[in-house]
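Notes from the 1:1 (GR / supervisor)

We went over the backlog. Supervisor wanted to see one worked example end to end before approving the batch request, so GR pasted a single chain during the call. The sequence is below; no edits were made to it. Supervisor asked that the structure be written out right there so they could see what the output format looks like.
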Amino acid sequence: MMTRRGTVRARVLPALLALSVVAGCSGAPDPGRPPARVDDGRPLVVVSGADLTSREGEGVRQALIDAWNADEDNRPARLVELPRTEGGQHSELIAALQSGSADFDVLNLDTTWVPEFAEAGLIRPLDDTLLEAGFLAQAAQAGRWRERAYAVPFNTDVGLLYYRQDLLTALGREPGELLGHETLGELIAQWPGGQEHPLYITQLRPYEGLTVNVLEAFWSVGVELTDERGRYRGSEQELRRGLSELLRIADGSKLSERAREADETGALREFTGELDGGDPSGVVLMRNWPYAYQHLDATLPDGADFGVVPLPGAAALGGQSLAVSADSARAADAERLIRFLTAEPDSQRRLLEAGFAPALRDAYGIGDPRELDCAAVTAVAVPRAPGEPAEGAVREVPPGYPELLWCALEEARARPASPYYPAFSRELRREVAQLLAENGSVEGTAERLHQKLALALEGRLSP
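Structure output shown during the call:
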């Protein structure tokens, strides 16, 4: 019997694959593809990566699915979260869709995956009106491939710079001194090293987070690796300049020694001092995504106030977009669910309150963004109440934060739009990780990257 709530969630993809074997399907199969599915009346299946807004229990994505399920006129939906493994979400989703063994309907994709999935025929074109709801322009564009709509922005993302007010004060510094720098490397170079607390923590573990940090360093000094069509256009000279800026950011006298093994969660734990048992440990500055805001409010020790400023230089645009599986037998209902999750201001506002950056302009409550003076955006201090909030509690968004976040998003840079982006990212981070780990040669790294990145973006494996 089908339940209305539909909240059962699979934590491991193979469990869903086993379930989907019993799904009915009919029709003569096309060569090389599984047979077409028929609508057997089952709930919609929404597949997504782990919800980082939830420390324990259900996160905001499940809460939004529950809100959809509360309306009896809607076909019930259930959320399936893919495992948090290194590259596992991407590879397992690709394998499941290509094999036809998973009966997915709505896919919550990283924005950089959309060209790859569209080119491979794994997602279907959508009604163009789904992208007309007043989204951040860059986020909406990320859902298009070859001038067709394939995905709709669910939440977007942008790199921000968080600061510990208590540790700034100990250094005799003010939040205003974090503003007005052309690049992050410039900011870090102007602060002393060798202090009691590391100055900076970011994500330099060899995964997508490292790619993002590299691209932000490159963009900040005017280095462009691709053209508007995702084709390689770099040079060894430009690569050397970008790598030199990255090494300025990764100054060993100022960077936390844990940065080279840190992902987003690891950076958070180092910033708060959790890895060393709490205060007085911790790091002064941290680059992270907007979701970190609620986590910091819940995990920093009492007296350790924090705040946030725009990331100096260029910040990468991130986020997830919702697409419909090419094999879905429930595509019309899937599009209705996507519209509910993305175009309803109340749904998107809940994302903001939970720590995500909504893609919908109306969720920010800032009026016409064209009237915002982003040059006047200043540091936003986060007021904290004593004690740890109750599990699941969400504190009010502080004044000025929606404006800061929207301005940062409008100025953010999208990563290259190419079906070969995963290969590009792998080659980039492999070489840079080796440079950082072995104190290698900038010249040699630039030479190898110049060859490998061009091959990767042409769809050819590097030798």
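Supervisor's comment: Residues 421-438 form the longest helix (18 residues).
Batch request approved.
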